[in-house]
Amino acid sequence: MKEVITLPIPNGAIQIKRLLANIKKEPITAENADEIGVFLTELTNEQSNNLASAFFGIYTREDTDTQTRQNIKLLLPLLWKAIDEDVKDEFGIKYAYFSANHMLEPRKLARQFLEIVNGLSYIPDDLRVLEIQLAMHNLLNAHRGNNNFYNEPPFAKELIRVIGMPPKVPKAINKNYVLTVVEVFLTNGNGVAWDAETIYFELINSFDNYQATVALLSFTTDNISSKLQLTLSKQKFVTLLNTIRQKLTNPSTVELLDIILDFKGSYAEMRKDTKIQRSLKNLEILLK
Asked: Superkingdom of the source (predicted)?
């Protein structure tokens, strides 16, 4: 009899191999997924990374059946937090590779894979810019149009989906992104789109120092300034300022914020005020 001598296979590796075989054979229920989730928490970091990469490879194969993809859809969220950031970045890079090589079906499947875990933010910035710009354009159109209370929320959800949470906003559109969020948060003056407002608060609470500064200075733009003549929009702007205060690190921006909150005149004309203009003069570099 011919004997084969091998190193012992770690128990975790055996179970991973069995799992990868089984997801191609049997449907996994939500209850099964929870049981498997316990096993996933016991994997080493390397095993988690390797299993996620295997899931990606299987999911994006054109000949993979629907049931197998559904199984991965149930298991991937249970594994995602244990995966290294560079592995997640690799999935985004592979999506970019499929796009660059016009591999339409793998590209679609790679996107679906990332969507399962709200991972579109891992797609390289040069590809994401256009998607985020489109999401902002659609949101603003809904906000400025009729029936915005009903039409706005789905586009708000789309924006948060493409930027991720916490948001990863490409530098090229960072300022426009903030101005978009500020505009929709201020409402159209007639009422609040409640189903969208929770998303806007989530985005505002995720602002970094630069984004908070852009939001503070948004009253210097024609679009936001004109909104501030509306009572509700002014109230929302005050709420915005109180929300972003903790995000600001520059003493001059905090000083300007307090000047605005103490301002007694029309917020729509505020940018013309002498005291405000002097304060803005000190912040010229932040306006660029």
From this structure: Bacteria
